[in-house]
Structure formats: structure tokens, C-alpha cells
Amino acid sequence: MEIKVMLKYQKIGFYFSQILLSAIVATSVQAASVESHSETSENFRQIQQPIPVKRGVTAAGLGLIGLEVWWFMFSKPKAKQATQTKDTQELEILVDGGYEPNRITVNSGQPIRLQFYRKDPSHCLDKVLFPDFNISKDLPLDKTTTIEFTPEKPGEYTFSCGMNMVRGTLEVRG
Ligand SMILES: [Cu+2]
């Protein structure tokens, strides 16, 4: 599953590269045409794009470069496999604007211990629900709350805040 997630990110990265490439091509083609026009004849000046448009295209290109750099440097997939200890699978989850990691991988038939540390004061995140396991737990602020259960059936299960707005996925492997 982690490979699948990585592939997804790679795919998004690829799309970004495509957009970036077309932006660069558009910018350079425009720059080239502007140059040749001004060199050849004054008559061609009329069809030149106004300067704000050129600047806009350049800015958009630079913005996309920045976005791509950001994407590869700072945006890591938030999937994580629980750490296997002697008889449980443990994982710490930071609750801060969302769940991190927001995708947890565990093995079926083994007890899991999830440690939710809530750093976010927002009321929205003061509860966490695992509806498929009939679990609803309050998450006091600045504290670690432990949730333990044993997922028996492989599959993908959603966990969420009390309003089902902020979500994460528990992947149970067979
Ligand atoms: Cu909420």
C-alpha cells in the first residue's frame, strides 16, 4: 500500500512537471518571439504582448517552479506503519490540524495501540472516532490518549473527528 501511495505522489509530481514544462516553453517562446520581432522590424511591434502579460506568464512560471520545489522538499507522504513490539503494534499520531500520519498500516489479528497526541486546540478535533470498531474517544488537549483494540478483518477503515470532517485511514493487512 505504501508503494501505491508513493506512486500517487509521483504521479502528482509528474503532472506538476508537465505544467511547469509548458509554462517554461510558453515563456521562452514568447520571449523569443518578442526578441525577433523587435530585431526585425518596427511593424511587428504592434502584435507584441503587453508587458504585464509577459510578466504575468513569467511570474506564473516562477510560481510553479516554487510550488514544485516545495512539493518535493516538504510534502512527504503521511503514511506510516505501526511499530511492531512484542505483543502489540504501536504508533503515535499527532493531532494538529489533521492527523499525522493520516494513514496507518497495521497487521490484522494483533492488538494495536494508538497514541493520539492532541496539540490542536480546535474543538473540532477533541474527539476521535473509529466507527467500524465502535470506538469514540475524547482527546484532551496537550495530552496523549491511548486507544487499543484488535482489528481482526483486513481492510481499510476510516477514523475521524467527531464531525467526520477530519479523517484518516487505518489499513489493516491480512
Ligand atoms: Cu471536526
- Major sheet attributes: 5 strands, mixed
CATH architecture assignment of the largest domain = Sandwich
List unreliable stretches of 5+ residues: 1-8
Structural class: alpha/beta
The oligomerization state is single chain
Instruction: Give the tally of β-strands.
Output: 11
Shape category: elongated
Small molecules (ligands, ions, cofactors) in the structure:
copper (II) ion
Number of helices: 2
Q: How is the CATH topology of the largest domain named?
A: Immunoglobulin-like
Count of the separate structural domains: 2
Rg value? 25 Å
CATH first level of the largest domain: Mainly Beta
Describe the structure in your own words.
The protein folds into 2 domains: 2-34 and 48-74; 79-173, Cupredoxins -  blue copper proteins (Immunoglobulin-like, Sandwich), CATH 2.60.40. It contains 2 helices and 11 strands; from the N terminus they run ααβββββββββββ. The radius of gyration is 25 Å and the shape is elongated. Helix content is 36%, strand content 30%. The two termini are 12 Å apart. The chain has helices at residues 2-40, 51-74, and strands at residues 79-81, 83-84, 89-95, 99-100, 103-107, 112-118, 127-130, 135-138, 144-149, 155-160, 167-173. The strands form 3 sheets. Strands 2, 3, 4, 6 and 9 form a 5-stranded mixed beta sheet that branches. It has a 4-stranded mixed beta sheet with strand order 1-5-11-10, with no helix packed on it. It has a two-stranded antiparallel ribbon with strand order 7-8. α1 (2-40) runs antiparallel to α2 (51-74). It has 174 residues and is of the alpha/beta class. Mean pLDDT is 80; it is low at 1-8. Bound molecules: copper (II) ion. The site of copper (II) ion has 6 residues, from loops.
